[in-house]
């Protein structure tokens, strides 16, 4: 492989690592800005409330946790430890 080919492969690899977790919470960003006061009031203060968004899978709020190894999204929890969701969980009916 030529030097140019290696450079292009390295550039493509570097760009593939960019995702929404590295984006700011500015206008049009993926995060709720500003966070509603009622959510701030019930959320556990140990969580980062600067980068909160709604998980499209279950409708619950998640926040960006920056750890020593990786940055990931964790469920936003209230002071009692329960997740904060925008809709009630679907009821499961027992199979008959």
Describe the structure.
β1 and β2 form a beta hairpin. Helices cover 21% and strands 15% of the residues. By secondary structure, the chain is of the alpha+beta class. It has a domain at 44-87. The protein starts with a helix and ends in a 21-residue tail after the last strand. The chain has a three-stranded antiparallel beta sheet, with no helix packed on it. The chain has helices at 3-16, 37-42, and strands at residues 52-54, 61-66, 71-75.
Number of helices: 2
Radius of gyration: 19 Å
The whole-number mean of residue pLDDT values reads: 77
Instruction: Give the low-confidence spans.
Output: 20-28
Q: How large a portion of the residues is in β-strands, by DSSP E? A: 5-15%
Tell me the distance between the termini: 62 Å
Helix content: 10-25%
Largest sheet descriptor: 3 strands, antiparallel
Question: How many extended strands?
Answer: 3
The global form is elongated
Order of helices and strands: HHEEE
Class based on secondary structure composition and strand pairing = alpha+beta
Order of strands across the biggest sheet? Answer: 1-2-3
Oligomer: single chain
